[in-house]
Amino acid sequence: MVSLFSGCGGLDLGFKRAGYKILWANDFDKDAQAVYIKNKLGKIDGRDILEIPASEIPDSDILTAGFPCQPFSNAGNRKGVHDSRGMLYRECSRIIGEKLPKVFVFENVKGLLSTKHIDGEKLVDVIYDDLSITGGIGYNVRYKLLNASDYGVPQNRQRVVFVGVRKDLNKTFNFPAPQSKQELKLGKVLDIPIDVPNQVDWGFSPQALEMITHIPEGGSWKNIPYENLAPRFQKIRDDMKKYHSPNFYRRFSRDEIMGTITASAQPENCGIIHPTENRRYTIREIARIQTFPDNFLFIDDNLRDIVAMYKVIGNAVPVRLAEVIALAIKEQVFENIENSLVPEKRGRVECCA
Ligand SMILES: C[S@@+](CC[C@H](N)C(=O)[O-])C[C@H]1O[C@@H](n2cnc3c(N)ncnc32)[C@H](O)[C@@H]1O
């Protein structure tokens, strides 16, 4: 497997657990690299992907890429492809076109589905069409909006996943069926033995701390009396219609499945307040919600920046979701194919050109 935009390795760990061997990974973020190395996922190339010729990337059976989601995120400014980060999927098709892995996997936020390309066409259609013919062979591309909680992840996190299978393999990927949501309630996830590492939290500002004391378990900022709201929230409360009745400062209850953990970990955009204690979730709690195992380490003397750790965890593909997809690909594509099916790539490209 070759892993682009690897982050701290959520997706990579899921694939590794499913039996894949990571040959090469890349991410230019120093904090993500530190976590990736610390947890022995392998070496990680730290360059900007824009500077890496495909010839420097090893051949692989599968290429994965969770290209940056901010330009497409509903939490972001939705500049979409007009933001330079929005064009990073082009780097994926460049590399796939040259390397022709048997399978590729992309993961992205739901907002990708409604993002328009520069010419007005839907970005998702552009990606689909591009990869259907890329490299002269093309891929059978399937994509679907998945909810991580359908696959054993204790979090309602909607993400678009693309799986492309090289056309000469004559296989089309089917997304796995949803699984039971029992056992996913927050109360279970937050029951963490005291000796598990990284149980540290990033403190709220005094203003946020004062406000959350008024929010009961299962509540939100709507429970905070007007006089206890910070002025900027009072302004919103004064004209809820104008601000589309936002649901800030959500404090999920132990009986619920948690909402999406975001990279910013702010109470304005995700339910980051502990159900019963007046604090943000700890690093370990959000790592558990993202299904990282308890021995996966984020904070130690060398990994100093706690805010950066919230970011890399929030950016990750839940490990369990990645594992389910990885196993389905293994079963549907890699089992029962002969190695002799691997085409002599250069020849194949030339013959189709
Ligand atoms: C959504 S995160 C990927 C998370 C990862 N799939 C996981 O499961 O942990 C996107 C990553 O792309 C990286 N990235 C963004 N632009 C990049 C570039 N030009 N070159 C290399 N990495 C880049 C960011 O540092 C970030 O870690």
Give your account of this protein's structure.
With 353 residues, this protein is an alpha/beta fold. It has a domain at 2-178 and 317-352: Vaccinia Virus protein VP39 (Rossmann fold, 3-Layer(aba) Sandwich). It is built from eleven helices and six strands. It has helices spanning 10-17, 30-38, 88-99, 123-133, 186-189, 206-212, 231-238, 283-289, 306-315, 319-334, 345-352, and strands at residues 2-4, 24-25, 62-65, 103-109, 139-147, 158-166. A six-stranded mixed beta sheet has the order 2-1-3-4-6-5, covered by helices on one side. α1 (10-17) links the parallel β1 and β2 (24-25). The protein is globular. The protein starts with a strand and ends with a helix. Mean pLDDT is 90; it is low at 345-353. The chain binds S-adenosylmethionine. S-adenosylmethionine (SAM) is lined by residues 5-11, 26-29, 32, 48-50, 66, 68-69, 88, 315-317.
SSE order, one letter for each helix or strand: EHEHEHEHEEHHHHHHH
Q: Mind telling me the C-alpha Rg?
A: 21 Å
Order the strands across the largest sheet as they lie in space: 2-1-3-4-6-5
| Percent helix range | 25-40%
Q: How much strand?
A: 5-15%
- Profile the largest sheet: 6 strands, mixed
CATH names the topology of the domain at 2-178 and 317-352 as: Rossmann fold
Structural class: alpha/beta
Poorly predicted residue ranges: 345-353
Going by CATH, the homologous superfamily of the domain at 2-178 and 317-352 would be: Vaccinia Virus protein VP39
- Calculate the mean pLDDT score and round it: 90
Ligands (ions, cofactors included): S-adenosylmethionine
Shape: globular
Q: What's the count of strands?
A: 6
The CATH architecture term of the domain at 2-178 and 317-352 is 3-Layer(aba) Sandwich
